Amino acid sequence: QPANVDYKAIVVFNLFGGVDSFSVLAPKSGGDCTELYNDYIEARGVAGVLNTNLLQIDASGSNQTCSDFGIHKALGEFQTIYNEGDGAFLANFGHLFKPVTKKDWLFETRTDLFSHYKMNQDAQRVDAFQEQSGTGVLGRLLDAMEKKNMTVSPISINTLTVMLDGKPETGRLVDILPSNGGKEFDFENKNGLNFADELVTAIEELNAGTKVNSGIFANHFSQSFIDTWNKTDDLKDVLRSNIDTAISGNRGNDFKQVLRMIKSASERGVNREAFVVGKGGFDAHAGVMANLDDNLPDVNNAVGGFYRGLKDINMLDNVTTIIISEFGRTISPNTNDGSDHGWGGNYFIFGGGIRGKKIYGEYPASFRETDKTMLDRGRVLPTRSWDSLWYAVSQWFGVD
């Protein structure tokens, strides 16, 4: 199927709970990262990934301290995407109000650091100066493209997310799609009696045109209901359409829905689209290694299947996919063999025609306390802000 040249989409896979991302991307011993790996293992202890459990990637030309890195053994699909040149890692990214140092970070950072709720909001809003209250970064990107007369669409799988909220005056609502396929309004009861005609007539009368005594809230509710009804009917065939690519795991159906929508973009007349998929379970205050062994295979299967699905429909270059979490976790383990709430973390991006097979950002040059990024309790000071990521993505998306 030929790609829609006027179509671009951003897909965010949000890993809730704060993934231990210094177990996702780590230095690997045996090459020029051996010294950094030794630092890493000494600092991480039981929370560190052993060299034999790391899949090697080459970060040559990435302006890092060394080039021999590894990724967690459960993320073989990430390794494939990276080695194909279609993906890249984002090293030590996080929420920043301004560039800060070990001396001033506590006084110069405007947020509730290490809080799940607040830092998840910060990662979704990307509005450090709070200039666009109530909006999310994807919502604002869609606002900008809508002003350029593009048809836009925000879609979340299964749940509401502030990331997709644009300015209220646009009147644009986020579509929430179920992962198990769309359900149309079905008025047939269990006994086979069909009240569709009578019920549809009643609903249409209840939500008819404005009258003198109509209230503004009633009108708004009725219009929202009618819009949802019509859109559900329009999408029922799309959401039931066949996807040839196999995507396994608990998030497989989520990404199949995203693929269905991307595949139908031309049919729906959409130019710019944004999707959010989420997965929780990463708050590993105890047994961090077991937590990753349990959760990362699901992430790996979803990402790998989605990557192949985009290639199958010739849309890989039209879609940028970003895997993020609200924060990284502490380098130092706690007494329960877990890791605690941190700050900077390592993330992944693929598609969208990016220059892959690189590690962008600045991975710590050392895990010793003397390093410029190492704070108390093994928290890592980010060297890149969320803004720097979204600036690059917004340029690709078409924002001036």
UniProtKB/TrEMBL annotation:
InterPro entries: Alkaline_phosphatase_core_sf, DUF1501. Signal peptide: none annotated. PANTHER family: BLL7424 PROTEIN (PTHR43737), DUF1501 DOMAIN-CONTAINING PROTEIN (PTHR43737:SF1). This is DUF1501 domain-containing protein.
